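Could you show me just one protein sequence together with its fold in token form as a worked example?
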Amino acid sequence: MDKIDKKIIGLLQENARYSLKQLAEKVFLSSPAVAARIERLERENIITGYHASINPIKLGYHITAFINLEMSPTKKDTFYPFVQDCPNVIECNCVTGSYSMLIKVCFPSTMELDSFIGQLQKFGTTKTQIVFSTSVPHRGISVTAEDVEAGVSNL
């Protein structure tokens, strides 16, 4: 992956709706050359999809929460299908530390969140944090060397 690939990835993370023509102008290549690079990046699973950013509150999902779940590894075979089938689960990560799973969810109300937590507790102990505000929303991964160096120097 070269600097042009990284620039294309950065641009697509900024706006996945950029046309090939717009991308080509920004990276100083032809549209067919940009299309070929994007195809290769998709084939190599570097680009894994294209998504719209949605405001959950505008859709009636006023409660965002992070749920820590302490669970025995023997329950993973039943837990994974359960959590994958729940449309309110935005993300689920297997993590280190006291808890084994970190689950991000969105619900219309605390009553529905409470009901979901009750279902989760058949797998283990939970600890829930409700989000009041988000100072840094989900964003893409920095792919340029300059961004990576700037991120390290800001620590």
Remarks:
- The helical segments are 3-14, 20-27, 31-43, 76-84, 110-120, 145-153.
